[in-house]
Amino acid sequence: MSAKCNAKTTAGKPCRAVAVKGGLCTLHSDPQIAVEMGRRSGQARRTKELLAQEWAELSPPRTAQEVRVALGGFIADVRAKRLDPKVAGILGSLANVLLKSIEVADIETRLAALESVLGTCTPKEQPKR
Ligand SMILES: [Zn+2]
Question: 29 C-alpha to center of ligand 1: Å?
Fold first, then answer.
């Protein structure tokens, strides 16, 4: 059976890790490991916070061109492992719906312009007889 580490945790409780060298665990035998782990944890947290801020600031695309740019960004983020592929899949589906609604809105705008030139109106605008 392996012996436990003789050191105490920062909370003052006995360390429960297995002793590997001189009665100490890996972490307590080399304080630099704890420093490095803390540094990496802080860096990961800061990166996560930055990404969250970036996402919060992302305004909804209003044109097909903006949707195209956003989708390109999602692809780049997935490849760089900054974005969960599942989330990217959901965003892709939403982008598809958004593109269709932009297309319909564009057709409605063009139709309204045509109708105003021709002097006609849509069926729902026709007065009841
Ligand atoms: Zn320890």
Answer: 8
